[in-house]
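Lecture notes, structural biology module. Today: joint structure prediction for complexes of three components.
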Amino acid sequence: MYSFEFEKPSTVAEAVAALGAEEAQALGGGQTLIPTLKQRLAAPAKLVSLSGIAEMKGVCVEDDGSLAIGGGTTHATVAREAADKYPALAELASHIGDPAVRNRGTIGGSLANNDPSACYPAAVLGSGATIRTNARDIAADDFFQGMFTTALSDAEIITSVRFPVPQAANYQKFLQPASRFALVGVFVARYADGVRVAVTGASEDGVFRWGEAEQALSREFRPDAVMGLRINPMNMIGDLHGSKEYRAHLVGVLTRRAVAAAG
Amino acid sequence: MTQVSMTVNGKSVSGDVEGRTLLSSFLRDHLSLTGTHVGCDTGQCGACVVHVDGEAVKSCNMLALEADGAEVGTIEGQANADGSLNVIQQAFQDHHGLQCGFCTPGMVMSAAALLKDNPRPTETEIREYLEGNICRCTGYHNIVKAIMAASGQDVGAIAAE
Amino acid sequence: MPKDSGIGASSKRREDVRFLTGSGNYTDDINVRGQAYVYFLRSDIAHGRINSIDTSDAESMPGVVRVFTGKDFEGVGGLPCGWEVADRHGAPMQEPPHPILAQGKVRHVGDPIAAVVADSLEQARDAAEAIAFDIEELPTVTDMKAAAQEGSVKVHDDLKNNICYDWMLGEADNAKVDEVFANAAHVTTLELTNNRLVANPMEPRVCVAEYSRGTDEYTLYTTSQNPHVIRLLMCAFVLGLPEHKVRVVAPDVGGGFGSKIFHYAEEAFCTFAAKACNRPVKWTSSRSEAFLSDAQGRDHVTTIQLALDAQNNFIGLRTDTYANLGAYLSTFSSSVPTWLHGTLMAGNYKTPVIQVNVKAMFTNTVPVDAYRGAGRPEATFQLERVIDKAARELGVDPIALRRQNFITQFPYDTPVALTYDTGDYNGTMDKLEAAADLAGFAARRAQSEANGKLRGLGINCYIEACGIAPSNIVGMLGARAGLYDAATVRVNATGSISVMVGAHSHGQGHETAFPQVVAEMIGIDESMVEIVHGDTSKIPFGMGTYGSRSLAVCGSAMVKATEKVIDKAKKIAAHLLEASEADIELKDGQFTVAGTDKSVAWGDVTLTAYVPHNFPLEVEPGLEETAFYDPANFTFPAGAYACEVEVDPETGKVTIERFTAADDFGNIINPMIVDGQVHGGIGQGIGQALLENCVYDENGQLLSASYMDYAMPRADDVPFYTVDHSSRTPCTHNPLGVKGCGEAGAIGSPPAVVNAVIDALHSGGKKVEHIDMPVSPSRVWAAMNG
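The predicted structure, tokenised, for the full assembly:
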């Protein structure tokens, strides 16, 4: 690692101020950032830890019934505390990384990083969640802007994420066998006004909504409804773990399985 | 340099570290607690698992300064007060749950965290829980068996020979 | 009744206590006062010509002690290859230099260009980034068949081409082989790849070297399976140091699997730099660095043909293999695709005519050398896959086809240079059929199908040549080392025993199993015996641990030394008992005059040896003996494995449902440890079959360069295994009748897994002939839909 200063503020305001410094970078749980720093692939002058900010932690139900999760909430906490309110989300959180990673990694960190194979982006996009930062609210549809790219500006911190709770939902993750990230992951959520389907791991543009499947499932929420649909392999990721065609195929399989499991 | 203080295996310790000092290096290099091992640099092998405020974490993936004020538990603090092996350690020895020993501290620390939350895990639950702990020697057979035994389950029927 | 101590007892491992309490002493746990840290600047391109390296900026960086480049090593040797393989015409292999730091060219990603020694690792790394270099990128060759083409990019400019050797074993007369195939009733042909693997012991490599100007002595602590081999190679071939001034210590070592046999540049570098800098130096590999600098394994491409007569007897076998050696010859790399591979092509079968052809290639990739099994997994995979394919083509039962062709008479001279001393392949297969409940397979398949899954059964047999090896034979075959081992049995005055052994334990449990043997021979408690290993200043000159040889070779030396000790102790006992030496019997730690109740205890005799007041004048005081043991032959463990898989037809995902191993290891000292060795081997074999793949792109960039892309088997990738080693034909030529068990699982399991997958696909109506390993979901799906 290159040398850096370390700061651990206890409020969002302090963190935002600290991040105003030259070459400052926010540190969530560090489960991706620290390995990156070890490889010397990033050289922040200052790391601003968000782990000491109490107001960014926790899971609670908002007045409108949506589930709000603090940006600094660990995957393990979500897995535990969202289990009653939004089981599909809790289940997704319970399979991110491994137990030790889940005890450190945070939802805000995962979303800000927007790894194209991460699980949370699928849940956020698939739920039509709202990302709340220190400065504004960002709709999920506007937040994800391609691999490792988001609508966040420098020094902007995800303070919470608000999930409308669906009538039914499920996440199907097909493991990339080495990293245990999603080779393909599909999140299906059924709301009163329609079904959302978000796919991670598959596309070179990062997490995306599968519009055709959403339409078909909104008409008829059963696995067969997407049987005839195909994803174009062209924009899929092809690598040593799976070809473009294979990923495109998995999107269909996992969508059907998610619908079946969502019930 | 910044001073960091924490409780490690029940003892108060402190030291001057850089921002970039990892918890694993603080334990190994500053405190000479070399039982915590480093087997990879991508946070996957789990040889470095310790407990921070009672939860399993990968100490090579956490800055020492992030553990300021925390209660840290390492493999060196796992044995019984009289120095005898604790239930998990003893089960690992009884069931040959280790060979070269390098992944073992992380395995034992993960097993302890698992059994704290889930005192009688099934085989499947154990295997899933160990997703972040890689062992190259045992093929996992005897590790899973040892953890089942440590949780008081009968492992006599598990195929051995 | 299982025994509770001595030979055959599952004694709990005494080494476990330190490993379970965090008090092991691995090399990275060793810190020497005043040590500096080394960082290697490694090439990030696979092939390039070094035009210039400017270290001046780096040298002035904070904390820098010294910066080294290839120029600093012009006066010393390169890393030697320990085995000279002769090609099919008897000419020596092409053997390019293997410098400590790159000279003239870099030849693979990870090739060290320079090394910085500094007060801290981060300072060394900072300085390495300040080294200015001009390296002209050259075209690369990573594909071994492409490397063999006329006009290919040459990895080594001074060699004729990229072919290290073109080797042949078995029937040299092509016409005769052609005739066998021409007359065959059936010929089965298969092309397959044995995927490149990375050994990945969980402990990365580490070296700590110190030098004393006062005594002109060096100490190197290193993660090695064989400290004496490292000392010999480094002193005699690289640095030109007198061995008696160099101590090599391999303390607790966190797994090796072959990758820690070899003498690596970093070991020689640290030893050299410790003197040059007059400061201890330490290098700890990161895992990322390990992927670029540890010797890798396997990587063969083979076409195999099996000829059968009308009665389905195997009548001929021919193989053409390309073996990728990487950019340089690692220590034993040349022997792996040849003498450790070609010699095993007979397998368990009495095929009369065999011809093995191997072209070994240099490419712009990390060097390849022995990895658990080393050559034998490659041989077994080819043979057992082609047999399975033949059975399918002929519509015969794969077990019956194997049984029909088993060797049943021993000793058996194979057409590929080995003499199997003993075995009972039908008996071992019987054990497998029972242990694996093959009778219940049909019902299990029906159950899987009811769940929408395809179920397959894969059978595999293997034989391996272990206990490496008779020195005179390997010498004739080109080995530049002897392959004996040694043990010193030092009896202390009070009767406890320290046994100094040349073998090294890095997971195998020698500290527990070896004392079981000595304790049994004398009739004392195991706790009275302790093993000392891993330090050239303490142990006799031994060749270390690899090739499942520790007990068969070093254990035999230990038995011989213990016998010498007992012989001498009997002389002393005879004196004390005023009896004839010939009448003295040793049992349960008591020397007794045969047919009388006169006896003296072990402890009294050993005390007398060191307090020789009442002592036979013709006998030297003390009780310590050394023996060297050079085996008369290899040992030949063999086994039969069964794997049952489920395949998800929608995703292609393969799940191992059952895995059963029936092995014949001869006699067994500690069944618990043997089970553990088999489990571990199976785990690695399943890893090779389903998950692991070391892949380079066409530019020589390693795509699987971390655990993010190199899939290590995890606990949820494997099931509980069933292991049966009740089939026992003891080795006929070593005193313990042991054969070795360390590699069996890794040799026997990959073909069983792949055979099972193919069987599953056929059961689902998919006529897939072969899928290369790793049999990933993507590949299975592609094969099913191809």
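Point to remember: Chain A touches chain B through 28 residues (CB under 8 Å).
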